Q: What sequence folds into this?
């Protein structure tokens, strides 16, 4: 139950140079993506580095929704630079790319698949020390600044997978709400859905003492260990903030209170799921974004079809929690109440439908596309979506209820239309 | 807002040898006190070290309520041993002694006062790396396994002071409820009062954005930074557990559920106050225990007069929170409600008395001595008690309301009798 170091506050980004100096860093790798590289968050970091006399090289070639190829490109850059610290400025794609770059540059002799999650990779434990990494999130969703997880598309198999190890967790996250003030509403909404699902999935994940196998050596235990008394605290608190602030944060870019709270909720949910894990919404989301046909999300400045991660996650949530509520219905009902449902007269056996209705109303209020059909999928795609979910066993096995292929099929079908 | 690494569960202590091996440790210093050195918690650790082929030396000379002299003795032992990791098994005294030993053995050229809190010491920031330290708490109170604080009696001035730096925070806390099953009820109660006050004081501490000064370099900021959105979560959760489980844990040594929860609450409150700080109950407690005359607490196996730390802290709590509730009364009322008060009809201006009454009832139910008079103090001692509180500015300035010497005097006087 390792937790994370974050510093929160408007303007904390400008302290990054001092932090690096305090860590003794002299030659720093600054990673970001091309959209951000000329925007204020990166500028503030560069100014702080210059002011504190820290030499750095800028890598702005991060791919939004990274792949093994894009990871390798960043890793090669990191290896050549022989850096003694890293700063990642951006969303989950940038932070995850930077974690991978740090990991492989610190282990130059390792093969790429060595640390990739089994069964796709070898899932080896990390036993060499990494360099310090400071993460500066500019979206309020991924929580990657607090987790030991780096997600990418493995192109060869056309599946999302990742690297998961406490060793790649950032040394420090600078959670600075100033970076969130100019995010378009649609980006805030989709990022917020990621927070919502991190919180819901981690809180309803299989309890830690029911997970198997249980490796006897602590170093071999997975980062995702099932719901537990520490992750619960973070997940519930993140959910409370989402319930209170997400709609306000979406509607008004200048609502500093709402956007600040969502930025903090993203980190809180990150600490929660980074310990407990996520399950079906995330496991099923990977083929939903991976098999995208022509859907292009509004407000996302990319040149390829894209289902934003948060959207791909949340569209199945009513179906998923209806399914999982058969186990631990009390927790499902509790989350429905936090999200605003009046549960005083609800029956415990209705926990699933109550939570699903609450989620549908929440998504409807935020103008979310009406299910998988609205983003281009039809019944004919279900076999491929199911096939794409099966390799996500690392997360799907954390669902409180086991699923057959038929179950997955039914969950995708039930998610075609929401309203 | 740095937080801590803990592993929680019945039996986790026996993994300590693997953890040390994973850290690459070969020559370990095991610290404990003479009472514990032949008891199961230490035995389990030694067995695990032997089983994993780790060489170690045992230091069992820790003093309960340590002093600068006893710290120095442990530091000398640590310097001679040239250890590459530390394990502390015991209560706060042992963990704090071990933190100091690790700090000064890692900085052999430093003077003792270099890192001691100002104004008594120089309060220098720690800039050299320390060795890994694994803390195994055997009481459920101090939370020292999660904090960067080490408290001792500075004999020359007859005051409690300490060392506070994120750098001395244990690398890992093994929170193993099996160690708490044989604790006498009185020890459970007093330890629990420490948890109670950690939670109440950190939750009502001056908010972090109102604290001054605000050093521009993050490394110079105090570990105790005022209440903040992260510490709040831990403090409130710890308080909820105290409300639900402390009485059960006191009354029945075999109540594993209650004692497990209190062990976790101790760590949670530690993370809370380790970030936010404590204030008046703790600041005033140091002279209460330091000036002890003849009081010897039942169930404590020591050869000198002793007011247990938790008792010295909690006896002033009704007076303190009546005083501080003038500021942030909502938070005071909220804590009263968590502790069981019916606050539906309470007026916000009565928050202080409501919380004080709730605390008095809680203490009465647990047979706590009737105030400072019952442990040997009289009105004539108040000037000395006030004088002993003044040097505790590091914590007392975190109270939400500033205090004059007259205020402190009145608080001690109001704490002479509780019921």
A:
């Amino acid at each position: 139950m390792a937790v994370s170091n974050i510093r929160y506050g408007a303007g904390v980004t400008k302290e990054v140079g001092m932090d690096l100096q305090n860590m003794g860093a002299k030659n720093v790798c600054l990673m970001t993506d091309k959209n951000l590289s000329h925007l204020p968050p990166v500028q503030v970091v560069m100014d702080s580095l210059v002011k504190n006399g820290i030499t750095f090289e800028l890598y702005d070639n991060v791919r939004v929704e990274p792949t093994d190829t894009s990871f390798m490109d960043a890793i090669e850059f990191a290896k050549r630079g022989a850096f003694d610290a890293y700063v990642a400025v951006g969303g989950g794609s940038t932070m995850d790319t930077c974690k991978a770059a740090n990991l492989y540059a610190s282990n130059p002799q390792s093969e790429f698949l060595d640390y990739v999650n089994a069964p796709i990779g070898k899932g080896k434990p990390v036993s060499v020390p990494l360099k310090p990494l400071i993460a500066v999130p500019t979206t309020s969703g991924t929580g990657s600044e607090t987790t030991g997880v780096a997600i990418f598309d493995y192109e060869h198999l056309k599946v999302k997978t990742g690297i998961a190890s406490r060793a790649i967790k950032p040394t420090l996250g600078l959670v600075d709400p100033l970076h969130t003030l100019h995010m378009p509403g649609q980006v805030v909404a989709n990022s917020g859905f990621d927070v919502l699902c991190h919180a819901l999935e981690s809180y309803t994940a299989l309890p830690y003492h029911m997970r198997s196998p249980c490796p006897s050596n602590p170093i071999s235990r997975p980062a995702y260990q099932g719901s537990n008394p520490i992750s619960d605290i973070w997940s519930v608190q993140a959910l409370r903030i989402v319930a209170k602030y997400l709609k306000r944060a979406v509607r008004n870019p200048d609502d500093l209170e709402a956007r600040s709270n969502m930025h903090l909720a993203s980190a809180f949910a990150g600490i929660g799921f980074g310990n407990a894990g996520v399950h079906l919404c995330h496991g099923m989301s990977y083929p939903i974004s991976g098999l995208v046909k022509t859907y292009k999300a509004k407000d996302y400045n990319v040149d390829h079809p894209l289902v934003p991660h948060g959207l791909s996650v949340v569209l199945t949530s009513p179906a998923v929690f209806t399914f999982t509520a058969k186990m631990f219905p009390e927790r499902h009902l509790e989350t429905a109440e936090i999200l605003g449902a009046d549960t005083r007269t609800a029956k415990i056996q209705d926990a699933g439908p109550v939570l699903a209705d609450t989620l549908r109303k929440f998504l409807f209020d935020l103008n979310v596309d009406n299910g998988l059909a609205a983003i281009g999928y039809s019944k004919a795609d279900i076999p491929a979506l199911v096939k794409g979910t099966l390799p996500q066993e690392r997360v799907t096995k954390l669902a409180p209820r086991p699923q057959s292929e038929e179950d997955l099929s039914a969950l995708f079908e039930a998610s075609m239309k929401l309203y």
User: Anything to note?
Assistant: The domain at 184-415 of chain B is CATH 1.20.1090.10 (Dehydroquinate synthase-like, alpha domain). The beta strands of chain B are 6-8, 27-31, 55-59, 85-90, 133-137, 149-154, 159-164, 172-175. The CA atoms of residues 22 and 257 of chain B lie 31 Å apart. The longest strand of chain B covers residues 85-90.
